[in-house]
Amino acid sequence: MILVTGATGLVGTHLLIKLVQEKHQLRALFRTEARKKYAKSVFLQCCLPQDQSAFDTIEWIQADLNDIPALTAAFKDVTHVYHCAAMISFNPSHYKKLRKTNIEGTANIVNLSLIHKVQKLCYVSSIATLSENTSQSPIDETAEWNPEVSDSVYAITKYGAEMEVWRGTQEGLDAVIVNPGIIIGRGFFKSGSGYLFKKIYTGMKYYTTGTTGYVSVDDVVEIMYRLMKSEVKNERYIAVGENLSFKSVFFMIANALNKPVPKKKVSPFLMKIAYYIQRISHLLFRTKRTIFKPSIKSAFSNSFYHNEKIKKEFKYSFTPIKKAIETTASFLLKEE
Known about the structure:
Layout: E1 2-5, H1 10-21, E2 26-30, H2 33-46, E3 59-62, H3 68-74, E4 80-83, H4 95-115, E5 120-124, H5 153-170, E6 175-180, E7 182-184, H6 192-202, E8 206-207, E9 211-216, H7 217-229, E10 235-239, E11 242-245, H8 246-256, E12 264-265, H9 268-285, H10 293-300, H11 308-314, H12 321-335
Parallel strand pairs: 1-2, 1-4, 2-3, 4-5, 5-6, 6-10, 7-9, 8-12
Antiparallel strand pairs: 9-11
Helix pairs in contact: 1-2, 1-7, 4-5, 8-12, 9-10
């Protein structure tokens, strides 16, 4: 029996499609019926016709990562765990909630995996936990967390979650960690990269000058699956298909959606002004904030990620990001 946490998110839903195709017995965690319903709609549109009925064969359990009784029931007869669940936010006011979900929730998954003698766990982390190399060379799996650098609350709690997984390996749990870049994939246009597609679809005029790593959700899922099937244990792998500028990605998305490309370059100074305007507006009128200091830093930093470890060890070839963008854009256009 395979257990998938975060099964109604981008990675989790596409992972279910892969596992269904491989004929595995599945148990999946979900938090709300609405999220499960949307995940089903994405599942049915993305999977092969002969696998569409398989969604109803998945055993679904409603559980929060901190609901120990529900989680304990979910772990019955489980041999492998894909831990995809996480809270994503860069808002400092969400720090306690982020810790509760990302760190404490992962600790619960690790502890139950140890108690139930799970054979292997795969944890989906993020490139956000990898600090820049001091040599200015591309960031690889040897990059260590730098506590001296001001990071987002999301990065801090994802790093804390990784520490829980490594703690589990010291106590006898076999585990692998995957660090994806920005994940491009079909569905889920209210968060992550999907939100960017929706913003460009409705009209976005601005772009920033930074660079970071991108990867197709299909690659993330395939890498996770291969790692879990392999003898590899207690290792991490960067999952980045290409390092691209935000400008080039924004342009590719706009072209795929047949929308005008963002033409106005934003400077760090202007973005800082927007940050303070939002902050004052939030304090006075409780308006929603979307710009935070760490997001300003990432919008203008040039980070390059090394993917040779997974390519060499598994002879892996990544999906071109342009192709992943076109597939995702086509899905959004149909949804709209």
